[in-house]
Amino acid sequence: MTVKLLPFLPSGYYVMYLISG
Q1: DSSP string covering the chain, please?
Q2: What gap in Å lies between CA 18 and CA 11, rounded to an integer?
Q3: What is the distance between the alpha carbons of residues 9 and 14, in angstroms, rounded to a whole number?
Q4: pLDDT, tens digit (0-9, with 9 covering 90-100), for 1-21
């Protein structure tokens, strides 16, 4: 799963996803 597939998620979850790598 890539970040490009998560445009519908809130910014908060988006940031946590980036931290998770």
Answers
A1: --GGG-TTS-HHHHHHHHHH-
A2: 11
A3: 7
A4: 555 655 666 777 777 777 776
